[in-house]
Structure formats: C-alpha cells, structure tokens
Design a protein that fits this description.
This protein has two domains: 52-313, Hypothetical protein af1432, CATH 1.10.3210; 317-386. It is 58% helix and 1% strand. The chain has helices at residues 4-22, 52-61, 64-67, 87-104, 109-118, 127-140, 148-163, 170-177, 196-208, 221-244, 255-261, 265-280, 290-308, 317-336, 343-346, 354-359, 362-371, 375-386, and strands spanning 187-188, 286-287.
Length: 396
C-alpha cells in the first residue's frame, strides 16, 4: 500500500501535467507563481497539493478583510432593500464571469479566481464616494492619496496577520493592483516580465501619485481577463439595481445601446463575454470588437450620468463626507494622545505588530482603520463618538 507522501507526489505531478497539457501558451502556470518570501510557507509550493494560485484563493477567503465584504456598499448605500448588490456579491460575479472567459481561452482559472475574489478588499465604507472622501483627507494631511486597488494589496500584503501579510504570489497581487474596472480598454496587452521590484514601485506610486493606478497594466492574461470581467460584472447589474430602487426605468436605456448590447443584465453579460472570447481566442491579448467597445463606452457614460452621479441618491453625501472628516480627525487625535480606549486602538492597533506601529504614519494608520470598516461599523463608530449617551433611569 502506498504511503501518503507517494500519493501527494502523484497528485502534484498530475496537477502539473494537467496544466501543461491543457493551458494555453499565453496562460500563467501555477508552478510559475512567485512569492516574495517562499521560505515562510508551511508547505513549499512545489510540495503542496494545493497549487500556488489555488492556495492564494484559500488565503484570501479566510482573511479578515474578506469577511468584511458582506456589509460593504457596491453602488447603492442607504437603501433598506435586500435585493441590491453588495460588494461580496459583486466579486463573486466577477469571479464567475472571468472564469468562464478564462476557461474558453484556456487560461489559469485558479489565478483568475484569486485575483477576482481579492480585487475589491480595499474599498472603503460607502464605496467610491467613501474613496473620494478618504483621498481628500489623505491629501489635506500631506500623506499622499488613497487608492482602493492599492489598499486591497495593502490589506493582503501588509496588514493581515497583525502586519505580517499573507505572502501571496506576485501574479495575484499584481492582478489586484491593476484591476481598475473604472477604465474600459478596447485591447489589453499584458505587461509581461514584471518583477517584484517593478510591482512594488507601482504599488508605492499608487499612494504617492494621483491617478497612477490608471497607468499600470496586469502582467498576466488572467489579470487582464479579471480587469475586463470587472466591467462586465457591474455595468448591467448596476442597471438592474437602479431599476429595483426606482432610480431609472428600463425604457430609459438608449435604443442605440440596447440594439447592440441588450436591455438586461443577462443579455449584456452574454454579449460582452462572448465578444471578448471571440476577439481574444488564440491571441496574446484580451480585446473587444470595435462596435461592442464603443457601445460599452456609451453604456458606461449612461450609468455615470443616470446612476452613479444621479442627484437623487447624492442628497446625503455631505453628511457622509462630514462623518469621514470627524472620525478621521478624532482617530488621529486619539493616537497622538495615546488614548488607548479609543476604537482605533481597541479594534485595530492593538492587533498590529511593532514594525507596523513604528514605520507607519498616524494618518496612514487611521486611513487603514477606516478603509477596513463596513458601512454599519462606520456608522456605529460615529454614533458612539458623537451622539450623547443615555444615563439610564438614574445616576449609577
């Protein structure tokens, strides 16, 4: 009877053979996964029955940051409606769409899934509105900028485990850093050959140079697929959510766009995904056809005009901005005064290692803390800090 070591060796061998035989020449093989500190892995990647990118997915979904997806806004905050999309659902949509495209193009689905599930971990409470407010606060404090792409990497690479990070592969972290679903490209060509040095410089620049994340591209085809799938996943779903909350009607969609892409989320996803597959099959890039690309740009502009910046859902924005300002200022002051009873200490800093405390500015600590909050926790912190508390029936 064979022992466990022999069985594991056979599984590892067959996993590699399966990739060599099936995956495209343009795919990133699991054995090419690069870790910054491979020596800290409990089981070295070459000896692990979980291949590198598959293992990274496990690390991500078991992270503290991942658990907080459940109550983070996608687009629509402040609605008491259980049928609109939250961040946790969005990343699942991205993963599913990207894996369908990746499977058709014979790319590495494990790498795709890891990037997809981790790509939005850095989003703040109240979604992109919160990101704008936190960016402004970082600027005013002369501490660079906030970038949710880079913050996703920051959680996984520097903040999880009390400051140790999860030791993910370069390919996964790079795909997360460069996902940028706000940008629609007609063609995405991987920035192949990217090193840890280049990646770390790009990561640092995202916090130092305004808008820098828009200038960088994934190093793998899989990263390019996730970047495209991000757009496909939200563009039609946001329309459905907007219809659910009576912000728009389906008949509001421009006929010129409907004719090409369809008028419902399922039709839009199907049209866009098939177009990407048709125009990328057997190629070393990921691309849309010109007609579909221009229709997608028009639909994206429609969403911006009628959904994302619709004044009907911006009436509470000034209040949210003020809450960000108040909590940011309070936590900065609490750290300066060593107020150890403050939530920033109790819920964040006391779990971080000495290296993080010593080498991180106060303003960046506060940014990390706020960025990690769910919407409900954010609101609760404001109430606890600034709402008067009842003394009860009598003085205790």
């Amino acid at each position: 009877m064979r022992n466990l070591i022999q069985i594991y060796q056979e599984i590892i061998k067959k996993n590699r053979q399966r990739e060599q035989e099936f995956l495209s020449d343009y795919a990133c093989k699991s054995q090419d996964g690069l870790r910054f500190n491979p020596q800290v892995e409990k089981i070295p990647d070459p000896e692990n029955i979980r291949q590198a990118f598959f293992h990274d997915t496990d690390k991500i979904i078991h992270s503290m940051a991942y658990t907080r997806y459940i109550d983070k806004t996608q687009v629509f905050a402040l609605f008491e409606n259980a049928h609109i999309t939250h961040r946790v659902l969005h990343v699942q949509f991205v993963s599913k769409i990207a894996r369908v495209i990746g499977r058709c193009l014979r790319l590495n689905e494990d790498l795709i899934e890891a990037i997809a599930l981790g790509h939005d971990l850095g989003h703040t409470p109240y979604g992109h509105d919160g990101e704008r407010f936190l960016t402004k606060l970082c600027e005013e404090a002369n501490k660079g900028y906030f970038c949710h792409n880079a913050q996703s990497v920051r959680f996984l690479m520097e903040l999880e485990g009390g400051g140790k990070g999860l030791n993910l592969t370069l390919q996964v972290l790079d795909g997360i850093l460069t996902h940028n679903g706000e940008i629609v490209n007609e063609r995405l060509i991987p920035d192949r050959g990217k090193t840890w040095t280049q990646f770390l410089q790009e990561y640092e620049n995202c916090f130092k140079i305004k808008g820098y994340s828009k200038k960088i591209y994934p190093m793998t085809m899989e990263g390019c697929v996730v970047r495209v799938a991000d757009v496909i996943a939200y563009i039609g779903r946001d329309i459905e959510d907007a219809i659910v909350v009576d912000l728009i009607k389906r008949s509001d969609l421009p006929p010129s766009i409907v004719k090409i892409l369809g008028d419902s989320n399922d039709k839009i996803i199907n049209t866009l995904a098939l177009d990407v597959i048709n125009n990328s099959y057997g190629q070393s890039f990921i691309a849309f056809s010109k007609e579909i690309y221009h229709a997608l740009l028009e639909l994206k502009q429609f969403n911006y005009d009628h959904i994302y910046f619709n004044p009907k859902i911006k009436t509470e924005e000034h209040k949210i901005r003020q809450i960000f300002q108040l909590l940011f200022d309070k936590y900065v002051e609490d750290i300066k005064k060593a107020n150890y009873s403050s939530p920033v200490f109790q819920h964040f800093l006391k779990a971080m290692d000495e290296n993080y405390i010593t080498n991180t500015s106060i303003e960046r600590m506060v940014t990390d803390f706020i960025a990690g909050m769910t919407d409900d926790f954010f609101n609760k912190q404001f109430k606890e800090a600034f709402f008067p508390k009842s003394f009860g029936i009598k003085v205790q």
